[in-house]
Amino acid sequence: ILNGIFAPARLAAGYNCGPSPLSGDARVQNQNASRPLTALNSVDLFFTPDKSKWTRSPVFEMHWDETESENRAAKNFLRRALSLDKNGLNQLDPGSNYDEATNFGRQVWTQAIVDALPAGVASLMLTDIQARYPSQTTLVGLSFGMSWFPGYAITPETGERQNIAFGENSWRTNDNGNDMIWNPSSNVFDPTSQSPIDGLIGGGEHYVYVFRNEMVRENRSIPEPRPDDYKSDWMPMYDAGDFIFDAMNSGVLIRRRVYRGMDWVLYPILNPANTFRPMADGLVPGNVRISVKIGKPYIPYATTATALGELSLPYTPVNTKLELSENNWFPFYEFNTEGIETFTNVTPVGQDALALIDVVPNPYYAYSAYETSRVDNRVKFVNLPQECKIQIFAMNGTLVRILEKDNPNTFLEWDMQNERFIPIAGGMYLVHIQAPGLGERVLKFYAATRPTDLRNF
Q1: What are the distances in angstroms from CA 204 to CA 183, 184, 396, 451?
Q2: Is 31 in contact with 9 (CB distance < 8 Å)?
Q3: Which residues have a Cβ under 8 Å from the Cβ of 276 and sit 6 or more positions away?
Q4: CB-based contact 169:198 (threshold 8 Å)
Q5: I need a labelling partner for 203 at 20 to 30 A (CA). Which of 29, 187, 323, 361 fits?
């Protein structure tokens, strides 16, 4: 889709030895979600400089070699860099917004997260932080791996806002790969590289991942009784990235459910003619909308597990438990005709439309498709206003015929006869059309007439 830059996550490339949107494990887990492609959700992905609409987003490390990535983060794990607020500042920077940088303190590392880091990583990270912030003595209470995506994603079938993540290759420092900001470069390949793997820059690998609400799972059975913590085990609709932050800092089982919740992947490259603004100024220069629509049957779609209880699966048949919704959980659409409505008696429009008036066919070569017999000669004046007067003149100024119209039809036929009902001679004619209150138009018309067909007499 979009020349190959937008695709279902389960069709995206995934391996651990080079550039790709997914690691091997992420790809396997997404395919193990056991969803047919027909279960894909439609998506409207918006880009906007309006920060009030931005999405709190996890940032995935995209470099495949942990010895070269920042703080040894693995591919498709959260980046081990301080989280940012909407102005591109982390919580330790002067003037930063702590609530934006940490999601009101909910997305910070605990001692348990620090203790679970691979050997040597905690000291490596703390040393790096103390080089910039000497008074900081611990990783506990700091937020890592979260930023802001300049836009949001909506599932049209349900109206849900969905979670978004984006990637960065922290090894690609020259292509904005280590700044925790969604700002892909325009570089695709390094022509000086001797390796097709190392040479693929891919704009810094700022892939965009759109997730689905996995708390309502299509075509999948749920073991009964449902666990009390069922809601916390699967990807929800937009929650400012809380589920992904917690899952990616938890055990492998919950982390894999993040990968299973991926629905769409976008592979962006910056147009060389454009540039990004500073994050404080809105990052993107304008508003863009990408819409991908999937054909769906007109059936109920629940939006939350609690709304329907045990019946929180799409494709649930209509019954009394669905009365919680205004439209029994069927999609509910609104539309308007603003901008395409019909206006009448608009003089400027009518004046511009005079240029559309014509006579067809022109030239007339002894025949037209409007004729019904061998003795019928006929042309049409088209795109006429409701009221008009048509005068047809020979080249010497002789008035040949006057036709008048006052009806809603947009055409008027002429039998190619003069006022005495005598067929006109072949040659050039001038046609003057006058529309009261609008103006006039003059046409040139050429006719090559044919002799009378005596077989009809």
Answers
A1: 9, 6, 75, 77
A2: no
A3: 183, 270, 283, 284, 285
A4: no
A5: 29
Name the token pair of 266.
């976008």
Question: In order along the chain (457 residues), what is the average pLDDT of each group of 10 residues?
Answer: 87 88 91 76 95 97 94 96 97 97 96 95 96 96 98 88 96 94 94 78 95 63 38 75 93 86 94 94 95 82 50 42 59 83 81 91 91 87 93 94 93 92 92 92 92 68
**Strands of 399-406's sheet in order across:** 364-365, 439-448, 427-435, 387-394, 399-406
CA distance 256 to 259: 5
Structural element, H or E, at residue 22? none
The residue type at 184: P
Please say whether the beta carbons of 441 and 404 come within 8 A: no
| pTM assigned to the model | 0.70
Helix or strand or coil: residue 120?
coil
**R_g of the chain, CA atoms, integer Å:** 34
User: Residue 6 has which token pair?
Assistant: 């937008």
Rounded Cα distance between 10 and 163, Å, is 17
How far apart are the C-alpha atoms of 410 and 384, rounded to whole Å?
Answer: 5
Helix (H, G, I), strand (E, B) or coil at 7: strand
The pair of three-digit structure tokens given for residue 158, joined into one six-digit string = 């349900």
C-alpha to C-alpha distances, 108 to 158, 242, 426, nearest whole angstrom: 31, 10, 90
